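User: Can you help me understand a structure? I only have the sequence.
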Amino acid sequence: MANTSDIRKGLCIVYNNDTYKIIEFQHVKPGKGPAFVRTKLKSLTSGKVVDNTFSAGHKIDEVRVETRKYQYLYPEGDMFHFMNTSDYNQISLPKETIDGVEFLKEGEVVTVIVRAADEVPLTVDMPQSVTLEVTHTEPGVKGNTATNATKPATVETGARVNVPLFINEGDLIKIDTETGKYLERVKS
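Assistant: Let's start by predicting it. Here is the structure, written out as tokens:
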């Protein structure tokens, strides 16, 4: 049994008879009154995000999890199919359990978090960034800028990202999967 001082991003806990993953937290020590921890929790069964405040020293039930590498195979309706890279077993997960699903490309290797007690896959962690090809964007017009001008672009997975004006169709770009923002152009 852990307490609020053990809270960290990515920790899986049992809260309200469901398994949640901590996606944000902030320790707060006001000038008056007791300390507390403000958290943002994501349900690993429904994908719903809730805000919760734990008082300092509050006991929390930690869920023991393991991480495994899986390769993304293909989508089928709202289900996404993955293959374990070590033993080639396949699993299917609902769309809600995957953060950054719009940047998921066939063949991409991701980390699947599995509950150790019963081997149930809980969620998919995307890589920090992915490299995707720009399939459609309007040409940038020279002299049309003030500073840091961007334009919309569509990448090979169908996601839309704002990119700088010098990016053209066919360019490879690196995208942050957490924020969905353009990071840099990749030389091919």
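Now, to help you interpret it: The domain at 2-62 is CATH 2.30.30.30 (SH3 type barrels.). The chain is about 0% helix and 55% strand. Let me know which part you'd like to focus on.
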